[in-house]
Amino acid sequence: MGRQEPGRGPLLEVRGVSKSFGAVAAVAGVSFPLYAGEAHAVVGENGAGKSTIVKVLAGVHRPDSGTLVLAGEPVEFGSPAEAKAAGIAVIYQEPTLFPDLSVAENIVMGRHPRRGLGMIDRAAIRAEAERLFARLGVRIDPARPARGLSIADQQIVEIAKALGADARVLVMDEPTAALTVVEVERLFAVARALRDEGAAIMFISHRFEEVTELCQRVTIMRDGRHVSTDPLTDVTVDEMVRRMVGRDLDALFPKQDVEPGAVVLEVDGLSREGVFRDISFSVRAGEIVAFAGLVGSGRSEVVQAVFGVDERDAGVVRVNGRKLRPHSARAAMAAGMALVPEDRRQQGLVMDLSIERNVTLPRSRALSKFGLLVGRGERREALDWTQRLRTKYGRLSDAVGTLSGGNQQKVVLAKWLAMAPKVLIVDEPTRGIDVGTKAEVHRLMSALAAEGVAVLMVSSELPEVLGMADRVLVMREGRIVAEIPRARATEDSVMFAAMGQGAVA
């Protein structure tokens, strides 16, 4: 089975699907086709309704109206099991395998081959896993436990499971967010092989370079509605961005020119055995300094140690000339330092608490009277900051876990900005959020620098580093190997330094 011929109907069609949660319409009248032998991108800002469509296809949500048409027949899914039985598989950003079972057992879960007397046929299980991995062109030991597999390998196991269950439609929801470049290339090779065998692939990503590399068709959503569906050859990236955000995005990196002031953050000789060594740098008021480098170079570990979350073996951190107590995030906060971590779900937010409680957590003592948190003050402060950051939500009392990824990022920023920090450390500030929200986060960072805040940023996105930083510190194997001023920072100069191909002094 190869790519679907023009004129033939779609393998799966979303027709006029609407879904509301209370008064909030998550999607309204959304329609688009998925063809066999094609990869179809669905793009839009956070909150555009992409995740709701995924959950409708996966059988998690039933649409309020509209229908799904599979191979020409209307279908209704009352559960994820029914969607899987119909041949629809969803590969999430973070798969959920059974960690204590083997890779092979995870692949055949729910359809174990059996031999005489109903005994599970373990040889057949292993043979099935080996056959599927060979078909996908990957090498993973079927006998090893799922626990400890990388995210990339877990996703491959999920794809093998879908293939073994004869899935015809593969939905990939932000699958590359936590992968390295090499892992992304392997995942795409697998996706192309399945596409060319005749599977219909729905691909959700915020990375336009991935969309253009893998997909043949693109559907754009905005505010829960369908905007357009086109062959990818008929639409440019600039046009996709305009349709997504409903306006021209004049400046993704709205960097203001600011004359830096006095040194606010000083780091001298910071070391941690086996992780980083002899890290020294400074950040001045009004300055944005970016850490660049390859994954594993030690950037995040350095800023965690600067903030006092992680231990360090040697070195000194000063804020406005005052030496901070090591391994004490409380001391860092008291000195006016704030950290927006890379993993906002695990380290930046308490997902079951309300939006307003998350925003005001660091200031709960200041907002309390006689040891009791005053709800009115909490709500007023949360409303102020969520409005400033243009956060989209239903009610401030809603759990923060109900928000889209971009809006969760805004809540993390609001939480720390409410403290009026002197030093703001942001680790991967726009990872996993859409292009419109990226522009808003960049605007905010630039405005804070203009107000005199010293900003230290870690980013794996070179355009972000080049567009926002006054200086770039390039790390390689736990050391700073180059310091590049904005005027001389290019993709080549940063990457050459990061890969050890002639550091720039």
TrEMBL record:
GO terms for molecular function: ATP binding; ATP hydrolysis activity. The keyword Iron does not apply. It comes from the Bacteria. It is found in: Cell membrane. It is a peripheral membrane protein. Pfam families: ABC_tran (PF00005). One of its GO terms (cellular component) is plasma membrane. Keywords: ATP-binding, Cell membrane, Membrane, Nucleotide-binding, Repeat, Sugar transport, Translocase, Transport. PANTHER family: CARBOHYDRATE TRANSPORT ATP-BINDING PROTEIN MG119-RELATED, D-ALLOSE IMPORT ATP-BINDING PROTEIN ALSA-RELATED. This is Rhamnose transport system ATP-binding protein.
